[in-house]
């Protein structure tokens, strides 16, 4: 006892942490989200991607105030002009300012990415959680249905929807979200299968909590980490799909613009007016890189084994 006390005093005199401080730190602790945020903050690429996306969203929201031109303002007499002067990114063949169209186009491309991913989250999380929790024949039937849907060419399905119901921007959100929910459902189902027999779930059943309440209040909050990670990796896919549809002329319509329509316009004039392709392509490339860096950073930050390294 005397030896332990002497050691404790010596540690305090040497400037080490006191036992009271150690107990205080242990009592305070850090939650899983705090640990994840700390690991994410240490990932420079992920932080850079997050900051760039926040800046891009801010620029898109403030587009009417940042540019003296609108996406629809045309000057046929001006025509295509190279970057410089009043038009930092040049103008297109109709004399429209490319920088203004990039800023307004970011609204469409990013909105499609985020909203379509939100649609896929709602459908996929609900479907996968119900399938994994109920199990048995219900799970078997739901998974076989999922496999049938996987076999369908959903890109052509989206194109058919756009042709039949018209080129509506809101339909584009729903259609792209309906394409992406299948993988989300499988991921959620696997997570639910791994935790549905945990003690806190069985305790909730013992005290009479309903199955729906267990799914929404106990299971889904405990699988939200993988859902968020996969969602950040889904957004770039949706943005690319929107760009592809717009490139084919099935996305947003003139005079509105997205990065996909701007790239389509630039491809047709890249030999004579290369700036019409360079700036939209660069904007899309940097946004996709930022989303991928953020998604990879979140995956590493929310990995439960990361803290064991």
Largest sheet: none
Please count the helical segments: 14
Structural class comes to mainly alpha
In terms of DSSP E residues, the strand content is under 5%
Helix content: over 70%
At the third CATH level, what is the topology name? MetI-like fold
> Which residues sit in consecutive blocks of at least 5 with pLDDT less than 50?
1-28
CATH top level assignment: Mainly Alpha
Global geometry: elongated
- Separation, N- and C-terminal Cα atoms: 35 Å
- Arithmetic mean of pLDDT: 79
In total, how many beta strands?
A: 0
Output the CATH homologous superfamily: MetI-like
Q: What does the radius of gyration come to?
A: 26 Å
Count of the domains? 1
**Under the CATH scheme, which architecture would be assigned?**
Orthogonal Bundle
SSE order in H/E notation?
A: HHHHHHHHHHHHHH
Describe this structure in words.
This protein is mostly helical and 309 residues long. The chain has one domain: MetI-like (MetI-like fold, Orthogonal Bundle), CATH 1.10.3720.10. 72% of the residues lie in helices and 0% in strands. It contains 14 helices and no strands. Helix 4 (44-61) packs across helix 6, helix 12 (224-247) packs parallel to helix 13 and helix 13 packs antiparallel against helix 14 (275-301). The longest helix has 37 residues, at 98-134.
Topology readout:
Layout: H1 2-13, H2 19-28, H3 32-41, H4 44-61, H5 63-66, H6 98-134, H7 136-150, H8 154-165, H9 169-195, H10 199-206, H11 211-219, H12 224-247, H13 259-268, H14 275-301
Helix pairs in contact: 3-14, 4-6, 4-14, 6-7, 6-9, 6-12, 8-9, 9-12, 10-11, 12-13, 12-14, 13-14
